[in-house]
Amino acid sequence: MNRKLVAVLLFLLLPTLLIAQNPPAPRGGPVLPANLPRPRDDNRHKAFLEIAQRGNIDLLFVGDSITDWFSNEPRARGLTIWNTHFAPLKPANFGIAGDTTQGVLWRMQNGELDGFQAKLIVLMLGTNNLSRNPVDEIVDGDRLIIEEFKKRQPQAKVLLLGIFPRNADPASQIRATIKEINSRLAKLADNNRVFYMDIGEKFLTADGILTTEIMADGLHPTEKGYQVWAEAIIDKVRALMK
Question: Fewest 10 Å CB contacts: which of 77, 132, 152, 164?
């Protein structure tokens, strides 16, 4: 092949080769792969879109099964408590069992924050990421979701809750990991638009035991557990919604 032609071809191919060897860093942090995973339940996502478009939501809860089973049938365990404490505040519950920070971020970017103007959004999320992602990525996932709240619901305040305790044994590794995550989540609060509460100790005995009376499986609240949750945050919720 003519040397001049070879030189021209190399010149043209050089940018492509450099990009292949040194791909640009992903935008948005470590929890944003090329394609965020869709929610675990498309039907639930579509139902939430319909609820959002109907409007009339002042208080929005976002999360996984722990949030989902507060009020959403057929597995609701805290519905009576929800109706007592939150129903008068025009709430919606956009929790999906098994969801992760990645799945919730996708949902927030795809319509679940459109069609209404909330006064307050309550987020408690990350326990399903504990076996999948390192601490930094879990915290970054919640941070990115909060950024979506700010962008798509600019009038709303955000109440970020620390991840609830898991496992009966206070000395378990998962407890230590949750404590580390929560210490970092607390730093996401600016006490202007984003507020943080860690109510984990309210679920525990004086010596740190998580009893089956509060979380029968060491993860999901019982009706009594939901009562603890509601009573721990209701005053703060009302104050932030004023």
Answer: 132
Residue 5, number of CB atoms within 10 A of its CB: 9
Select the CATH number that applies to the domain covering 40-241 from these four: 1.10.10.10, 3.40.50.1110, 3.90.190.10, 1.25.40.10. 3.40.50.1110
Per-residue confidence (pLDDT) for residue 42, from 0 to 100: 84
Residue 209 main-chain phi, psi, to 5 deg: -80, 135
Domain boundaries, the chain: 40-241
Res 78 pLDDT > 50:
yes
Contact (CB, 8 A) for 240 and 120: yes
Give Cα separations from 160 to 144, 186, 217 (angstroms).
13, 8, 24
Which residue, 106, 86, 91, 85, is CA-closest to 41?
Answer: 106
Measured distance between the N- and C-terminal CA atoms of the chain, rounded to whole angstroms: 77
Considering just the CA atoms, what is the radius of gyration of the chain in Å? 22
- Exposure on the CB side of residue 59, measured as CA atoms within 13 A: 18
| Inter-CA distances, 171 with 86, 177, 180, 207, Å | 34, 11, 14, 11
CA angle 110, 116, 122 (to 5 degrees): 75
| Chain center to CA of 234 | 19
Residue 205 has pLDDT above 50, yes or no: yes
